[in-house]
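Batch manifest, entry 17 of 40.
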Amino acid sequence: MAGTAANHRSEKNAGKKSLIKFLTLAARSSLLVVAAIILCGATLRGEEDLAHLQQRFDSEKNGVSKAKLLQKLGDAQFSAERAAANANDYSTVGLVMEKYRDNVRAALDALKKSHPDAEKHSSGYKQLEIHLGKGLREIRDVLIAVPEPFRPPMQLVAQDLRDMDMELLRLLFPRRPGEQPPMQPEASTPVKPAQPPEKQP
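Output type: structure tokens
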């Protein structure tokens, strides 16, 4: 009788242990599924965010708002570019950086149109110049990592970004101490050809 009770308790304990193992495995599996769903959702949300930010940027007419929006859009583009570089997808890296360059140009053009005097109305210009500094560092890192066949287009993007950065600095600081203003061409006066000396008789 005592042996039967002990066997029954032993079977009951084994059943509990099996149930606990099953529940633990089920909980772990559920956690993995939830984590995978969250990760996929975050990736899709990142892509949607980039597309949504690009759409907002493209439809923005105000130059200052456009320049300020470029800060978020540019950061999202840099994240997409880094993810593509980690996957060795250098075609996408190139496309993202070219689009960033085009966005900087669009923001600069909108600023010049709405506020031509950057020295007096620097809002937007400053934010654009600061973010462009980040863009220049990003393209420098890209040039180091990108394979040779993809390098020439990235060098063009880097040069365009440097040119726009110099233009922004000139617009923000037109009068720089110690810098001579460019020489204005003087009105051209016709130069008479030299006359040979007259012969003495």
